[in-house]
Design a protein that fits this description.
By secondary structure, this protein is of the alpha/beta class. It has helices spanning 52-60, 79-84, 100-110, 116-125, 139-151, 169-182, 196-199, 221-224, 231-238; strands at 14-23, 26-36, 41-45, 67-72, 75-76, 85-88, 157-161, 188-192, 205-210, 213-219. The protein has one domain (14-238): P-loop containing nucleotide triphosphate hydrolases (Rossmann fold, 3-Layer(aba) Sandwich), CATH 3.40.50. The protein has a six-stranded mixed sheet, with helices on both faces. It has a four-stranded antiparallel sheet with strand order 2-1-4-5. Helix 5 packs parallel to helix 6. The protein starts with 13 loop residues before the first strand and ends with a helix. Bound molecules: adenosine-5'-triphosphate (ATP). Adenosine-5'-triphosphate binds at residues 23, 26, 28, 46, 48-54. The site of adenosine-5'-triphosphate (ATP) has 11 residues, from strand 2 and helix 1. It holds the Pfam family ABC_tran. Keywords: ATP-binding, Nucleotide-binding. One of its GO terms (molecular function) is ATP hydrolysis activity.
């Protein structure tokens, strides 16, 4: 008789439990708890200072929680989790003297899951010359390059902090399409942005933060179908000054 092997469900792609970050007297994130499955594109929304960047930094492992727990595919934050996470920080992270092709080489050296051919293809579609030094590129073009490199990794979880803030409106849709195209069904994306109107058509779910606390984590359809309004209008109403 065959031995009975019970099926064990895989752990969620991301779990945060009572995650808290204090900077002195400032509570940047306050007992944040979430469970995220694979295959979701999640908008991380909230007013200035609500804790979006702080949350993404802690999941990426570049800031340490004051309290609480983070697991990525069951791993605590460490080398195993970092290998699964592709993180686009809020600020540019390359030296301005580096050329685009050097940035590609840097990623190829650093990340085993980096697909250099995919990155080159995406950059060519965006019209970014590989020989250009970063210093010669506009702010929006640097953002395009960095987003492309981050998305050309075969990661499980992509953390994108304000990925299109400096990109002109005409190029935003194209960039978002590029993001979606690179996205794989077994991966999830958490995308922090103030450009709610631009991104809402691309999102499955959203998380609303205020004063470091989670107000809501719901499918976009909760707003569009349940309340008959857009996510942008819902956000503006919720956070009216
Ligand atoms: N290194 C730091 N030292 C002190 N306070 C910090 C630090 N980083 C963030 N904070 C504070 O933590 C809170 C959350 O900041 P965070 O940058 O995470 O917000 P955010 O939602 O990303 O804001 P924005 O939309 O303006 O980018 C703010 O009150 C901020 O001033």
């Amino acid at each position: 008789m065959d031995a009975f092997v019970p099926e064990v469900a895989p752990p969620p792609l991301l779990e945060c439990c009572d995650l808290t970050k204090r900077y002195g007297a400032t509570v940047a994130l306050d007992r944040f708890t979430v469970s995220l499955a694979a295959g979701r594109i999640v908008g991380l929304l909230g007013p200035n200072g609500s804790g979006k960047t702080t949350l993404l930094k802690m999941i990426a492992g570049v800031a340490h929680p004051t309290a609480g727990d983070i697991r990525v595919a069951g791993y605590e934050v460490g080398p195993e989790s970092k290998a699964l996470v592709s993180y686009l920080p809020e600020r540019p992270y390359f030296s301005r003297s580096m050329r685009v092709r050097e940035m590609i080489a840097f990623f190829a050296d650093f990340y085993e899951d980096f697909d250099a051919a995919l990155a080159r293809d995406m950059l060519a579609r965006l019209g970014v010359p590989e020989g250009a030094p970063c210093a010669a590129l506009s702010k929006g073009t640097v953002e395009k390059v960095q987003l492309t490199l981050v998305m050309a990794r075969h990661a499980a979880l992509y953390l994108l902090d304000e990925p299109i803030g400096g990109v002109d409106p005409a190029a935003r849709d194209y960039i978002l399409q590029t993001v979606i195209r690179a996205y794989r069904p077994q991966s999830s994306i958490i995308l922090s942005t103030h450009l709610v109107r631009d991104v809402e058509a691309f999102l499955d779910d959203f998380i609303l933060l205020r004063y470091g606390q989670m107000l809501l984590h719901a499918p976009v359809a909760y707003v569009t179908q349940g309340k008959g309004t857009t996510l942008d209008a819902f956000f503006r109403e919720e956070f009216r000054c």
